[in-house]
Protein 1
Amino acid sequence: MSSPEKQLSTTPPQQQQLEQPVLSEEKKAELCRQCDEYKSWMMKYSPTVLFMFDQIKNAGGYVSPNKITCEICPDPKLGGFHAEMGIQLCANYIPDKWVLNDTLSHELVHWYDNTRFKVDWMDLRHHACSEIRAASLSGECAIMTEFKKNAGMMKISKGHQRCVKRRAALSVVGHPKCKDMDHANQIVDEVFRSCFNDTRPFEMIYS
């Protein structure tokens, strides 16, 4: 799922990642086993993941467990979504089950958008809108999460929105039609207000 023509939506790492050392086959297998354990736990017990499963079903879709896979990713990212292939979780970049929970929730927002709104993933604005919603609604930009990483460098009141914009742009910049980071930021800014304010299927943003 990692090739550019297939990987249309990716979740960037929560912080800058150093180049990973070469992993042995045994280490890769161990990381994938751990990821599968985290995934199975979240699919049984995570309120957000279970809620998203139900909402996707209500929208006329179905999340097959076979389409949520743990893989070793060559590029630094937490995961990705493809409308046909499903969700990829990057076992070598996900450090714990709580990051996996946010990542899986993020990708399920994409799945919901794809089911409910028939997203054109090759349209930059469509892509940016779903990235904004996924970053905002998944929990990855929760105030305390951002505060722990950026204490003293942000104002709490605007921290959530800044995080959402930053992470959405980091995802959009990988789109084949995006020229560079300035272009990504421009597209995100253009659609930010309407997409950020659309919290479906949630009643509100739980940060």
Protein 2
Amino acid sequence: MSVGNVQKAPTGPNKPAERSKSNGAEEPKSQFNPRLLWPDMIKIPDNPWTFTCKEVIEKLGTNPQATAEMKRCMEKCLIYFYTVKKKLNLLDHTYTAACILFFRYWFVYGLPHTLTDCIHVSQAILVTACKTMENNRPIDAYVKATCEFLVKDLSGLRTKQNMDKLRWDVRDRLVESEKAILCSFGFDLNIENPKDLIEEMFSGYYRFNRDYDLPEEFKLVFPKILQEARNFIVQAVTQPVSLLCDGYTFIALSLIYCGLQFKKLVDKDFRFPANFFSDKFPVAVTAQRFEEIFTDYRIIEENFFDLKSNKGDKLEISAADINSVIQEPEVPEECPSAAANPYDYELMKSGEVKQELIDHIEKRVQELFDRTVMEVKKRSSENPSEVEPAVKKAKI
């Protein structure tokens, strides 16, 4: 039966408006409005991801054997993140994001029963972190690195097994697990990654346009403290400290710790400038609050992983110790977490760009240009054929 001449009535938003002739007047009826279902601005879900130390410890359970097995699987997953980061040359930002997402997933959903399944979940978390923090890698790169890790580091897999079959299985599981991970988090990827935030907070823009009024002696030593704080963050995320505090609090914690170490080892008179934290952080920094966080951090270390990067007794930091390096205003007791947000767009949109920043950017661009030219010359000297293209044959 031919249906070529049958014409269907228009439907959906392109359908002509029907008019009512009641009372002798033609009035258009309401139509489908796509903007009600797809608004101009979509709000990303933002869920609280911080918990008390007691809640985190209780997640380990009370069965010693089951707890030991769980921690063994968790530690293997963290080793997987570090191994693949090295193989794929991922940023520290991606590594810290993967650790944060991993501990969030563990806290809410727990881990699969087998170590292989844990690695599959970790692979999806690492891919999600990479897509969030930097340029994504080809899927085959993740699959190859994961297969090599499974065969090399897991005793349950024999090295002689069919690698092609394993790669297809890992690839299929990645696609499935990635969808499950995104749905499990409710598409909430607002990680507040401290390693990423610390680079933004103390980038060239802020150094030259907001922090120009810092004391000169502090500006000389602060880069060293800042570098140690970056190392502190990368090491600390291997423990579930990210479940205790948000990203900005994590950065303040790292700076206070490194400031105290600098005071102890280098300069006994060192202190952060007055209002340093209140001017730069959208969270309140008080000695009492951070004494509690350091105590919780030490308890977390004692109950989770025995790593070379553990701080141990160095985390026994009192409120008096913290007050010896910070100079912050008193916070009202009725609202201890209140703090102004220095990154509010309304406060930043009309900021002045100083000549020092322009000169700094020009210098960095020139350094990048010179480095690129040197790399091209080096490759050219190693492969002369790349410089002298082959002569094309004349078409007959």
